[in-house]
Every structure is written in C-alpha cells, then in structure tokens.
DNA sequence: GGAATTTCTTGATCTGAATCAAGCTGCCGG
DNA sequence: CCGGCAGCTTGATTCAGATCAAGAAATTCC
C-alpha cells in the first residue's frame, strides 16, 4: 500500500499505540482502493474477509429484511467498520455502500486476528474500540425505544451542533432521506418533523440548519450523556 | 467466595480457557451475594465497579429517559452483564434489577482490567464476548427497525421454541408486561398481538404457548440468522 | 381462606407516523 | 437553455399502536 496512507491509519486509536513491527505486518497485507459512489463494498450475510478503514469519502451501513431497508449508520473518515465480524470471523450483519467517491483501506481479517494474539497493546485497543461500539449501539437503541421521532430529530440536531462546536448554523452531513431512515422514520415525516421544530427555533434551508435558541431546543430535546454522548 | 460457585463461573466462555493462577487472582476479590427480588443492583449512570455474573435467578436490564422506561434485556444464569462498562471504566448505560431471588457474583472491574493486560487467553475471550454482545444488539436493532410488533413477537416465539429444541409447547420465561417492553410495545398491544397470531396456529394459555403449525408461523415470521440467531 | 394488589385482557378512542398522491425544487446532461 | 430526473415537500388518507377505561384473572399478603 502507498506509504502516505499509513500515517492516517496509524493515527487511529486502534493502531496508534501498537508495536511498529506488528503494524508493519498488518500493513503488508493491506491494500487501499478508490471506489466510485454507490458501490456495494460488502453485502449482508457475506463472510468477513477484511477490516475496512474509510480514509476519505463516506460509507453507509444498511440492513434489509423482507424487502424493507434501514440505515444503521454512516461511517466517515478516519474510522473502521465491521470490526466485530472481523474478530468473530462471522458473517456481516450489515451491508456497506459508498455514498460518494471514497478511499478505503482493506486489512485482511486473518491478519487482524493473528496480530491480536501477539500484541497486547493492540488487543487492548481492540477491546476498547469494541466496547465503545457496543455502547454506541446501546445508546442508539435507547434513543429508538424511549423517544418519539421528533425528540430523536431534536437530539440529532443538537449532536450535530456539538460537532461544529456549538455554531448556530451548520450543514446536515447526509441526505435527508438517509437521515430519515437512520432516525427510523420516512422522508415525508422528517420533512414534517423539521417543521415541527420551528417553534423551538429551528430554521431549515435545504441542508442548512440554524438553531436560533439553543436553550429552547435543549429544553425540548432533553439530551443526556447516557444516550447522546457518543464519545463516552 | 465459596468454592462451589467457582466451577460455574470457570465454565463460562469468558473464563474457561484462562490461566488457573489468573483465574484465582480474579476470584480472590470476587464475592457472591444473594439478593431478594426487585433489588436494584446497579443504576443508570453509576460508575462500573464490578463485573456481574448471574449464578441463579434472573436480572432485568432497563433504561429510562424523561420518565419513560424500557426493558433492554433479561439476563439468566450463567452469564455476565455490563462487560463493556467494566472494560471502558465508563458509567452504566442501563440499570439492573433482580426479577427473582438471585445469586450474583461480583468481580471487581479493576481486577478484570488488570488480568486482561497479563492474560492473552482471557483477553481473547473478552474480545470474543464483546463482539458477540455487539452483534446481538445490532440484531436487536434490526429487529426493532425492520419489523412490526406482530412480526417481532412471532420471531420471539420461534426463538423461544428453538430454546426448548422445537417443542410445540413451552412457557414464556418472563412476565408479559416485561416482554411487551422488551419487544417495544405496550402490555395491551402484546395481548392483542398474541391473539393476532392465532391465525398462524399460536395458542396462548397464561404463560403457556403452543405453536400448532410451526411451518405456518415460520412463513409469517420469516426469521433469518442475521437477526434471530443470537449465537452467531 | 379471603381481601387486596397486581397483572392481564378487552373494548373504545385517539394519535403519531406510514402510505398514497401530487406538486415543487434543484441539479445534471445534452 | 431546457427537458428529465431524483430528492424534497405538502396535503389527504389510512393504519399501527398508544392511551384510556374497566373488568377478569392471578398473586400476594394478612
């Protein structure tokens, strides 16, 4: 793989502290590839041959059942996805598709498992990452089961605002129809829900969101770190 | 802790292969306690001081937000819970409450983390367990987002039937109101949903469930290992 | 064993959200 | 510059599921 990407991958929590030789061993089997938009990188149910790292662009994780489809997550640089399947050597539970032109690093799953067994630091990092992922899904589950769609949307917007350090105005990072699916609603309802937040000072103009009165929205959304703090 | 419980704990995937000395080290700080029903073992948001192991009885994991409460899972012997919080040394995302008289082993979180750093086999087991937990939540998330409540119930019943090796008749393991909450519906609706499955050969008598025509129910429920096989 | 409490069920009604059906808007390519 | 097309919005309708209300069944507790 090109030398240039190594630094980015190395900087990930998962790899930053591990032994240099072990990292090299991982990188030897790794290759980096550019994909156009809308390419299905992996399909639900397939065996998990590679740990994927998104270096640029973005990837959508979806699941389907009985003709229905839902967006489970969107992965942005620089991060990995389908770590759990890699570790367990089990089939993917989600499909992955590029949303835009994306650069993806593919690390052979067998190498990840092998290095795991010889590098303590790496093992520790994987456990921390997995625990993190687990907690994120639990939070998302709580969000789904305990909140109405309007409340989910309000909290989503506040989290996005957090991402831009509290700026009153910011851009949605994903298409509305995908956001709708992620939040567990239809595009029509997302449209209406965005209107429904107007009384709390939310202005929408295309992908541009403006939160006029954060305090007002906060009072409605009632965010809690036990659901909305994806970092802890 | 009493010698007698060690064997049960040792038999768990998490501990079965680890070094005997390390296991002893873990057990030294561990104590076993009996709890009456309805005791809140841990509260949402608290720091995670112990890894818990249910030795007998059962424990319900719930989450609350803004006055609403939902059942996230029920833990039965012999298994652990809140492993992720223990590993990350982060606050619990769920509360845990005994449903019946239960015997619980408490392993100090700091010991778990310490042994993790010195025992490869244990580290490997923890990673496998965490990956397993992660995948279970993802499955549960798919269940929630892709299925109607009637479909969720049908698949739940089929999974329960699986647990008893396909016997046509079996008992529900939890109270109906808790099952309702777990499945993301109200008790009233669960009642109606159970009636709604009559056309597919489901008979209900208190906690006794009879599936007269499994093929018929299967055709309606359309289970898939990518959602319903909790083992993989 | 019987009163009291809780859980479960059933029916009636209400509501949030999905679906259906058009328009609208903005973007891409010729 | 202007079709064509995908994504978004809006309104009307339908539907699944929640809520409200009350009665029945099962448990618990004196």
UniProtKB/TrEMBL annotation, chains A, B:
Residues 14-133 form the Cyclic nucleotide-binding domain. It comes from the Bacteria. GO terms for molecular function: DNA binding; DNA-binding transcription factor activity. Gene3D superfamilies: Jelly Rolls, Winged helix-like DNA-binding domain superfamily/Winged helix DNA-binding domain. Keywords: DNA-binding, Transcription, Transcription regulation. The keyword NADP does not apply. Residues 147-215 form the HTH crp-type domain. One of its GO terms (cellular component) is cytosol. The keyword Plastid does not apply. This is Transcriptional regulator. The gene is ftrB.
């Amino acid at each position: 793989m090109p030398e240039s990407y190594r630094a980015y991958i190395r900087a990930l929590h998962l790899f930053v502290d591990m032994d240099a030789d072990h990292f090299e061993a991982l990188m030897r089997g790794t290759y980096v590839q550019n994909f156009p938009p809308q390419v299905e990188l992996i399909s639900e149910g397939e065996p998990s041959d590679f740990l994927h790292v998104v270096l640029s662009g973005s990837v959508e994780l979806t699941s389907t059942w009985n003709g229905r489809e839902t967006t489970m997550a969107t992965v942005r640089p620089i991060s990995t996805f389908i770590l759990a399947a890699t570790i367990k050597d089990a089939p993917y539970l989600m499909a992955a598709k590029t949303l835009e032109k994306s650069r993806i690093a593919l690390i052979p799953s067998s190498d990840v498992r092998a290095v795991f067994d010889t590098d303590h630091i790496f093992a520790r990092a994987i456990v921390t990452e997995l625990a993190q992922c687990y907690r994120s899904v639990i939070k998302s589950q709580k969000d789904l089961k305990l909140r109405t769609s309007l409340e989910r949307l309000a909290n989503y917007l506040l989290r996005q605002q957090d991402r831009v350090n509290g700026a009153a105005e910011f851009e949605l990072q994903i298409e509305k129809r995908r956001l709708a699916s992620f939040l567990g609603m239809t595009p029509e309802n997302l449209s209406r829900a965005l209107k429904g937040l107007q009384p709390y000072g939310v202005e929408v103009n295309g992908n541009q969101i403006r939160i006029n009165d954060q305090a007002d929205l906060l009072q409605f959304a009632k965010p809690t770190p036990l659901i909305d703090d994806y970092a802890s």
